[in-house]
Amino acid sequence: MRALVVGSSLIDIVCRFEDKIITKKNNLILNLGSKYNLDLIEFSVGGSALNIACDLANLNNEVSLISRIGKDIYGNYILETLRKYKVNPLIKIDKESTGFSVILLKNGEKIVLSSKGASENLEESDIDEEMIKKNDIIIATSCGKNSKKIYKKIFKLSKKYNKFFVFNPSISIIRRERNLLEIFNDGEIIILNEEEAKELTKKRNIDKAAKKLLKHFRRVIITLGKKGSIYFDYNNKIYQKAYKVKVVSTIGAGDSFTAGFIHYYFKTRNIVESLKFAAAYAAINVSNFGSIVEAKELEVLDFIKKFKT
User: Fold this and answer.
1) Sorting pLDDT into bands at 50, 70 and 90, what band is 205?
2) Which residues pair with 91 in a beta bridge?
3) pLDDT digits (tens, 9 = 90+) for 277-303
4) What is the extent of the structural domain holding 140?
5) Are 127 and 157 in contact (CB under 8 A)?
6) Residue 181 sits in a domain of what CATH number?
7) Is 207 left (phi over 0), alpha (psi -120 to 50) or beta?
């Protein structure tokens, strides 16, 4: 499979707390003026587009990434990572510095503080029609301040060349752009989490949100974190449980799920088995530290078999 991924490439600064921070109703409470100790601080690559691209490449797909980075040591580190995973870097060097996310990690769960930097400056001109034409699948993630215009161009070209189009929007883009769904008509698939689905559709009920999304996409997947995921199409609703593993970090879990599903569905065209594969790929992600999964396809399939026995 040849895949083109469009969106953000960032540096993650991961901070894990050792102190007994107050948590209440899924909120992390930090007192102003206080000092907290960290038992880990680590720099790594991040950004949905970069994570998905590397995860797909790790599964032996031919992958290209359209993104922007700064002319700095952090941008160089991103390029080194792309070379490591054999991702074709269709990267433009921007006048702004490479973007960062500061990730606060407590008991495996995360809070993300993001400054997108150069990745915010993607433009329509960065989208090469020939690259759309030569790839099998096109994946659009968060594309910065020009997202809506970029999505329009990507989707139009995907339809023109009959490409498998996947939309994987972020909550920040959904909140920023009005009437985002009006761009899409008969898109192949949209993958997003529960918060994103509800915000995008203005529906509080998942089934109602999916019904609205199906007016624009043939298939809808809504991820539910540790509760699993739900797949919808015009005739089916399929629930996939999450695999129960010890959670080390949820960083990149949604991206791994997306990459896992795309990889296995494009290979097999089997929805049920692809949902299992995606859930397993995400489970392997959260049971290890880092945003990119290192497991190969056979290891993921072995993981699934072990959970059956």
Assistant:
1) very high
2) 67
3) 999 999 999 998 778 999 999 999 999
4) 2-22+38-308
5) yes
6) 3.40.1190.20
7) alpha
